[in-house]
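Problem: given the chain below (186 residues), write out its structure.
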Amino acid sequence: MPITTFDDRTALVVVDLQHGIVGIPLAHPVDDIVERSAALLKTFRSRGLPVVLVNVAGAPIGRTDAGRVALNFPDGWTELIPALERQPDDLVVTKYSRSAFTQTGLAERLRDHQVTQVVITGIATSSGVESTARDAHEQGFHVTLPIDAMTDTDLARHEHSIREIFPRIAETGTTQNVLDALSDRS
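Solution.
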C-alpha cells in the first residue's frame, strides 16, 4: 500500500544504525541509508514528532538451526553512529532481540506520547526492521516503511521483505514520499 497520510502523532523509529552494524557488508551503500534516515530525523525533530533510536546489544538465547555463537562485541559496537545526532528528547531503546518492541517497553513509551503511527528505517530489512514493523502492526500502530532508507546483508532477503511482507503490514514508499507527506500536513 503506498503512503497516504500521517497521523498527528507519528514517530520515527531508526533501527540498529550503530558502529558494529554500519561497517558490515550490505546490499546497498550504507551512506545512502544513513543520509535518508538523517533527513527523516531532521524533519521529525523540526516538527516536534517523537524519535526513537534503537541499538542491538544481544540476541535471544534460544537455539536455532543456524546455531548460536557467543556474542562478544568489541568496544563501541553498540554505540549509535554520530550521524543520528542523538538529542536529549530522543527515546533510546536497547534491544536484545530482533524487534525493538520485544521486552523493551517501547509500545508503552510510544503510547505515553500518544503515538499512533510509526515510520521505520534501518538495518537489516529482513531482521530488525521487519521484526519491528511486524510487532508495531500487531500492537495496533499504523506502520510506514520508506524502503530506500533500509538495507540488509543479503539483497534477496531485503527484496523478499519489501515485496512479500511489507505490503501486508504497512504502507511503503520512499524517503521523499514520507518527507512530501509530512510537508503536506503543514
